[in-house]
Amino acid sequence: MPEGDSVYRAAARLHETLAGRVLTTADLRVPAHATAGLAGRRVLEVAPRGKHLLTRLEGGLTLHTHLRMDGRWEVYRPGERWAGGPAWQIRAVLGTEEGTAVGYRLPVVELLRTADEQRAVGHLGPDLLGPDWDQAEAVRRLLAHPGRPVAEALLDQRNLAGIGNVYANELCFLAGVTPWTPVGELPRPDRLVERARQLLDANRLRDGHVTTGDTRRGHQHWVYGRAGRPCPRCGTPVLTAQQGTPPQERVAFWCPYCQRGPAPEARSTGARPGPGGGGRRPGR
Length: 284
Ligand SMILES: [Zn+2]
Description:
binds zinc ion, 4-stranded antiparallel β-sheet, 6 helices
């Protein structure tokens, strides 16, 4: 699951390559849009909205894409070899004279009228990296269902948009509560939301979703991906367990000393998430 800061960076890269330029190639490899004639149109801008990407084109069209678990947009200079995966995984190609954006494994590729963008992203809560960020509204939405486990509420993009599994786990650690703590029992929900915004903002221009302030590999997180290893604050082994029910399940990490609240029976040694930090259940 991508985090909002990764999507923000992807949008910035695409914007730099495409905005203000005329599409010389446009190829949407999804049945509904295979014949959409977009070549010849100018790209106006590429904007992130939570974890969604909106590529706005002249003529009132928007290409809506979402990365979900494995999707990626790569940018190549003219003549550069495309290296993001096998050709059959390519879902979209947008080329200008300066470069080509290639979308791999995109589960959502949807062409809509710019006037209808709300249909695609209207359900989202305040965008943590958006120009219209509204902290009070995000807190209000989070607390609307006070019995909900805090990690689950943070991941629900209708409450606030941009948090994936890394930040959900790390924010629980920073708040001193387990991921299963009812969101209504958070001592300072406003502070948690403010922290979320600060973290995504600090990481919007760099890789790694750093929450500790330490950018060295292996030191970037308090508990995420650290099952069985000592908590950096107190030394207690970090625990891990599955949270949620399929297909929405993911791996939760927490320190049983630093974090108070309900927790299931846990394993102290678990497989670490694979490359990309998807936070999926180990072994799947
Ligand atoms: Zn600890």
